[in-house]
Structures are given as structure tokens and as C-alpha cells.
Automatic annotation (TrEMBL):
Alphabetized InterPro entries for the sequence: Clp1/Grc3, CLP1_P, P-loop_NTPase
Annotated ranges, domain Clp1 P-loop: 80-238
Record's function text: Polynucleotide kinase that can phosphorylate the 5'-hydroxyl groups of both single-stranded RNA (ssRNA) and single-stranded DNA (ssDNA). Exhibits a strong preference for ssRNA.
Catalytic reaction list: a 5'-end dephospho-ribonucleoside-RNA + ATP = a 5'-end 5'-phospho-ribonucleoside-RNA + ADP + H(+); a 5'-end dephospho-2'-deoxyribonucleoside-DNA + ATP = a 5'-end 5'-phospho-2'-deoxyribonucleoside-DNA + ADP + H(+)
Protein name: polynucleotide 5'-hydroxyl-kinase
Domain of life, source organism: Archaea
Keywords linked to the UniProt accession: ATP-binding, Kinase, Nucleotide-binding, Transferase
Cofactors that this protein relies on: a divalent metal cation
One function term, GO molecular function aspect: ATP binding
Length: 378
């Protein structure tokens, strides 16, 4: 189709450009994107799109973005709700500045990595952040920081410790969780760790002593909760492409899940009235793996806590474990995810495309039947 100079095509799918146009501030003649991106025509151009698109008048890149690209800063922190344009702004700035390091902390809708992980890389001439050159990451094992703020902050601190040593401009992209005191405290904790030169905010934000540069959202395509869930499932599938079954010794698992001492399960089966795979007792917890899902009365849980003198009791079925998402590491480098498929006596089978790993971190959610489900694990 012929698109006149001064118009913008908002498109996703397979795109080819004949003419002079900017894609998020870069000249990219051909690309594929699963996310809508703006293509601004600097001259009359032929734009071929195999996918969805619409045409709007003028340039959709706000003036505040262009001014931000000309400002003097080394570390920029992006603040805004869901679907406000944070990732698009990060991409635009990286393109306009000839390349930037990107720290992607959005564990729910990460572009650099898969959901459940945060990481950093280098972006240059990118359609979106998924095309950035990946450097390292951290497996949070959750898709929302709510209730797991401390765990996520550990990941932020670990990654920033590495990234801050690298020469070059850095952009920090964050989650869309901005409402409420806990969300504010979470953002402030990240700000204290990163200490950015500028906080660019899409929303009205009272961030205590941090000065804020207000930016507009531009042309944004809002996504429903269902659409965001569908996108996450697609990212899991992409991450698992080419995966193979790998038998793993339990000793490679980091954390407390298999650290408890096995105890006789007969009494527990009698109390709960369900077949049990194994029972493990840690210093302050009891882990019960059942052969099937079942509901247990809270009074029984409290009685078992008193009897075994533990603070927490975790009950998870074998079916729930078969689908549990895990993160794989080689030394301190995060490789990617795997999914548990079978649980053995001293080992378990995972599905992954990564083979050279020496540490496994269990997540707190699983994937199955085209959806995610949450798990409570020690």
C-alpha cells in the first residue's frame, strides 16, 4: 500500500518498507513483530504488511520522547502502568541514541526474556526489546512481584550490580504495578538500588524525593488481561521450541524444596485420607507431595503444624509438579526455563532446550492446558 509522507502505520506481523521511514526511531526495511509498532513515513513509501495495521495522521512519537533523547543522562528509569508505552519508549531511545543497555524488570510481560524472569541486554536498531542482545538474567519464578517483592528486589540488586559496571547509557524498564502503597514501596526500593539520573513517568507519580520528567503515552494499543495471558503462553512456547527431555539429579535443585528429611508417610495418608508420594520435614516447614489434588480442612493443617512444630505446611500434588516452571543456570549466568514432566525418587525429568546447566531454581507457577497455575512451594 502507498502511504503518504507524514503519516504513521501502526502495524504488527510481517512488514516490508520501500521508501524512507522510521520504525521506533530506526531505519529497518524488513521485520516481523508480534507487537504493534509505529512506522513513520519520512517520504511517500510503499508499506507491505502481512498482519494487522492502521494508518494515522502525523508522527505518534511524542515530543517529550524526542526531548528525552537529547537530554544528558546515563541512567533512565521508566515508570508507568500497564500498556502505557514504556517498552516502546525504551526501544525508541535505544534506536535514537545509537544503542543502550536495557534492564527489563517486567517479569509479567518481559520482552527481553520470558515471563517469570528479568534480565539485561543491549538494544540497537530494534523493532522491540525482544531483539536486544541478551547478556544475563535472573529467574524470579513469579509473574507478578505482588507478595514476592523481596525476592524480586534481590534480582534487581544482583543484575544492577553487574550492569552498572558496563560503559554506556542504561534504561530501566519496570512492571506496570503502580497502584497502592506496596507498589510504591516496591518502586522506591528499586530507585534506591539503581539511583537513576532521570525518572520518566507516564503517570502522575509522587516518588518522594525523586524528580520526575513527565512523558506522554503516544499511540498505545491496550491489551486485555486475557490477551496478556495469551501472549505469555506464546512466549513459553517460543522458549521451549526445540526442547528435549533431560534427566536431572535432585542435588542440582537450589532452595529448600528437596532439602527436608524424608519422614514416613503412612500417618499422613491416614490423617489426610489421600495417597501420598512423599513427605519431607525441613527446619520450619513440612512438604507433602500427594498423588492427586484434594482439598484439606484448615483445622487439620493447624493441627499438623502444632504436631510437627513447623511454621508452614506445603501441600502439592504430583500433577501440579508436572508442569512446574524452573529456571536453569550455568554458574551465575541465567540460561532460560524448563518445565518439569516427571518426578522420580532421586531425580526428575524436565523439558528444556538448554543442556549445559549446573543449577536449577524452582518457580512458583506451572503451565498446562494453555494456562498458568500458581503453586505454593517452600
Amino acid at each position: 500500500m502507498r502511504v503518504e509522507k507524514g503519516k504513521t502505520v501502526i502495524a504488527k506481523g510481517k512488514v516490508r518498507i520501500e521508501g524512507k521511514a522510521e520504525v521506533c526511531g530506526a531505519s529497518i526495511p524488513e521485520f516481523f513483530t508480534e507487537k504493534f509498532v509505529p512506522i513513520y513515513c519520512l517520504e511517500d513509501s510503499e508499506i507491505y504488511v502481512e498482519g494487522d495495521y492502521r494508518i494515522v495522521e502525523g508522527c505518534t512519537i511524542p515530543e517529550s520522547w524526542k526531548k528525552l533523547a537529547k537530554m544528558d543522562w546515563e541512567v533512565l528509569f521508566l515508570y508507568g502502568g500497564v500498556d502505557t508505552g514504556k517498552s516502546t519508549l525504551a526501544t525508541f531511545l535505544a534506536n535514537k541514541l545509537g544503542g543502550c543497555y536495557i534492564l527489563d524488570l517486567d517479569i509479567g510481560q518481559s520482552e527481553l526474556l520470558h515471563p517469570g524472569a528479568m534480565g539485561y541486554g543491549f538494544a540497537k536498531n530494534c523493532v522491540n526489546l525482544s531483539q536486544a542482545e541478551y547478556i544475563n538474567g535472573y529467574f524470579a519464578g513469579v509473574i507478578s512481584p505482588m507478595g514476592r517483592e523481596v525476592k524480586c528486589i534481590r534480582g534487581v540488586a544482583r543484575l544492577w550490580k553487574e550492569l552498572r559496571k558496563l560503559e554506556g547509557r542504561k534504561i530501566v524498564n519496570t512492571t506496570g504495578w503502580v497502584r497502592g502503597k506496596r507498589a510504591l514501596d516496591y518502586k522506591l526500593a528499586k530507585l534506591e538500588i539503581i539511583n537513576p539520573d532521570i525518572v520518566a513517568a507516564f503517570d502522575d507519580a509522587d516518588l518522594e524525593n525523586w524528580s520526575v520528567y513527565r512523558v506522554e503515552s503516544g499511540e498505545v494499543v491496550e491489551r486485555s488481561r486475557e490477551e496478556r495471558a495469551r501472549i505469555r503462553m506464546e512466549k513459553y512456547r517460543k522458549e521451549l521450541e526445540g526442547s528435549k527431555p533431560v534427566l536431572v539429579d535432585r542435588s542440582k535443585v537450589s532452595g529448600r524444596f528437596f532439602n527436608g528429611k524424608r519422614i514416613i508417610k503412612d500417618f499422613m495418608e491416614e490423617v489426610l485420607g489421600v495417597s501420598i508420594r512423599e513427605v519431607r520435614r525441613g527446619d520450619d516447614f513440612l512438604l507433602i507431595i500427594t498423588e492427586r489434588r484434594f482439598e484439606v480442612n484448615n483445622s487439620i493443617i493447624e493441627s499438623l503444624k502444632t504436631l510437627y512444630e513447623v511454621e508452614d505446611i506445603y501441600i502439592v500434588s504430583e500433577d501440579e509438579i508436572k508442569g512446574l516452571v524452573v529456571g536453569l543456570y550455568s554458574g551465575n549466568r541465567y540460561l532460560g526455563l524448563g518445565v518439569v514432566r516427571e518426578l522420580g525418587e532421586n531425580e526428575f525429568l524436565i523439558e528444556t532446550r538448554h543442556t549445559d546447566f549446573d543449577k536449577i531454581v524452582l518457580g512458583e507457577f506451572g503451565i498446562g492446558q494453555e494456562k498458568e497455575y500458581m503453586l505454593r512451594l517452600p
